[in-house]
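Hello,

I think I submitted the nicotinamide-adenine-dinucleotide job twice by accident. Can you confirm which output corresponds to this input? Input:
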Amino acid sequence: MKLLDGSLVAAHYKEKIKEEVKSLISQGSKKPHLAAILVGNNPASEAYVGAKVRTCEEIGFASTLLRLDAQIDEARLLKEIAALNENKDVDGILVQLPLPKHIREASIINAIDPSKDVDGFHPVSIGKLVLGQDTFLPATPYGILLMLSYYGIDLSGKHCVVVGRSNIVGTPMSILLSRNNAYGNATVTLTHSKTKDLKAHCLQADVIIAAIGIPYFLKADMVKEGAIVIDVGINRIEDASKKSGSRLVGDVDFDAVAPQCSYITPVPKGVGPMTICGLMQNTLNAVKNKR
Ligand code: NAD
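Support: Only one job matched these inputs. Its output is below.
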């Protein structure tokens, strides 16, 4: 079994982006600028946005973090997005999800200028993805593709089972892997909460991508010998042995599943850091698209 080390691979891609930023700046370009909007103070969202802002600093991007009150109404939030769309210095905009219940997520995502949609959630980005056109890929699926490419893992002709059909992970991942492109050409089964006999589907899989949001959901008896397992899940569970009283675990029962895999991602330090890489690469691409 080989561990797919997200920290190591992310460091590799971040270094490459950092070098490219230096070279762009030496040619007279400005720093890539990522603007993040955080509504409210959900602790997980705070942590994710904090990591994104820190990464911007690390690799030579400018960043703006707009903190907005959880009570903000949709119209006011739309105005903030319009201002960032208009701001010529801002190359990429991300709105940290989830948003408070009174705000319609789709209306916010749809308001982002597609040329600045570095999270890749806008209908224009998703539409282009489906058609195989150049676009911003959603950051998590993009990060997973970067990781597979780093390890030289070719999924062509493989049977991939994606568990979970969210707009941000499962659905775009299933489409990307099934397309005729350098990283795709897999045969894909997209499974979800209404799938019958999920175990039978998973046992057919050469590759399982788990994006469910249930700790330890994927068990050893659902995975065939030699499979590749990518664990997208980030779940906080109680752990009295930790000072914080909790720890992060994935959607895969890692200790039981890992021995029978050819490759597996850990949680933490698996897909998480790669998602940030996908976002940063998209922001760099936003700058390059303007040149
Ligand atoms: P989500 O929470 O929007 O949806 C969960 C999906 O799982 C749904 O499509 C549902 O159909 C499916 N599902 C639920 N119960 C199921 C069952 N019993 N059998 C089969 N399928 C079932 O999904 P999401 O936003 O993709 O998040 C999934 C997990 O990934 C969460 O833990 C989230 O925190 C994590 N996540 C991690 C990253 C990262 O960077 N590593 C990025 C995004 C999400």
